[in-house]
Amino acid sequence: MQPATHLLYLHGFRSSPQSFKAQRLARWLRANRPDVHWWCPQLPPSPREAWSLIRQGTADWPVDTSAVVGSSLGGFYATALAEATGCKALLLNPAIDPARDLGKYIGEQTQFHRPEERFDFRAEYLEQLQALHLPSITHPQRYAAIIAKGDEVLDWREMTSRYPGARLLLLEGSDHSITDFEDHLPFLLEFVLS
Q: Which of 60, 115, 129, 157 is deepest in the core (most CB within 10 A)?
């Protein structure tokens, strides 16, 4: 695996490119590695549309030097992308079965970083998520994950069992947002950029 020259960041459900983790990583790259091509799109609520945006936006990226960082639902998409293309993936408390877990959010939702922006999360989106679900990963050396035992949204045991053989940083506490993300940035950067 080669150091990344292209880096994609995929945010979680109801999140955005304004998330703390995305902003922190973008700042670090601007200051330290401006040569790395960075892309952090606003993902549409439709998984089909999100997947299309991700695939179109990375279609001409060099697979051997591309990497994706995905948080929560973004981790689910990042896994699908790594399996589809062979790129490296660094996952932050990744969603394992969003088709199961997001059923309770059907209806009107707001974005965390812009509560005035509303979107409709539709029942058919669960089927679209199911269509992207993969039974297992291949080539675990392509994966690394930061998983918090203190995640209040997702089960850390389910997350770790999804990525057997991957490089895992298992946090004893923390939370779903990984509010201590700054402390773990070196792990992420070492995996993605070396």
A: 129
Pairing of strands 37-39, 66-71: unpaired
- The CATH number of the structural domain formed by 6-193 is 3.40.50.1820
Whole-model pTM: value is 0.97
Residue-by-residue pLDDT tens, the chain, 194 positions: 799 999 999 999 999 999 999 999 999 999 999 999 999 999 999 999 999 999 999 999 999 999 999 999 999 999 999 999 999 999 999 999 999 999 999 999 999 888 898 999 999 999 999 999 999 999 999 999 999 999 999 999 999 999 999 999 999 999 999 999 999 999 999 999 99
Which pairing describes strands 118-121 and 143-148: parallel, antiparallel, or unpaired?
A: unpaired
Question: Which phi and psi angles does 17 have, rounded to 5°?
Answer: -65, -10
